[in-house]
Amino acid sequence: MTLEKDGVLSPEELAHLPGVPPAERFHEGPVVVIECAQEIPCNPCEGACPASAIQVGEPITNLPVLAADKCTGCGLCIPVCPGLAIFVLDMTYSDQEATVQLPYEFLPLPEKGEIVTALDREGRAVCSARVVNVRNPKKFDHTAVITIAVPKDQAMNVRNIAVDRR
């Protein structure tokens, strides 16, 4: 499985992205994971970061580089990414669970406390998740940021949710 062949990043590709923090950083609190692997003209994440933790620079086709030591995990970069490629993970959320903040552009929006299905990068169900927070202010321009709690061993796999209200 590769981005080029299947449209899904492989673990090896993820490991080499300059927007993915080192493993030890996950133990210090919330931190952004930028899964941007295409060198396209794009940089709104750079301007959205109040801590200057994301740098694209020149040329604008550079992949975003994360300064993980500067990242506060605020998630303001999530709704500005047109590729929906930015997430915030908090592996310190609890002993058993991590949180994943992710962009969400579907309706209905989930509600705080709702149980949803957590999906991996291929859209496969991997576990149940509890919605911890829903942020959808006007300045996010219709890209809500959903925070879900998932088992820690799924935090690096979960990248979307399915809301089932049938």
What does this molecule look like?
The protein is mainly β. The chain has helices spanning 3-6, 11-15, 44-48; strands spanning 31-34, 54-55, 65-66, 86-90, 97-104, 115-119, 125-135, 144-151, 160-162. It has a seven-stranded antiparallel beta sheet with strand order 1-4-5-8-7-6-9, with no helix packed on it. Strands 2-3 form a two-stranded antiparallel ribbon. A hairpin with a 6-residue loop joins strand 4 and strand 5. The longest helix has 5 residues, at 11-15. The mean pLDDT is 95.
Q: In terms of per-residue confidence, which ranges show pLDDT below 50 for 5 or more consecutive residues?
A: none
User: How many angstroms separate the termini?
Assistant: 33 Å
Structural class: mainly beta
Number of helices: 3
Major sheet: 7 strands, antiparallel
H-E string: HHEHEEEEEEEE
Strand residues, percent: 25-35%
For the biggest β-sheet, the strand order reads 1-4-5-8-7-6-9
Summarize model confidence as the mean pLDDT: 95
The 3D shape can be described as globular
> Compute the gyration radius: what is it?
15 Å
Find the count of extended strands (DSSP E, 2+ residues). 9
Oligomer: single chain
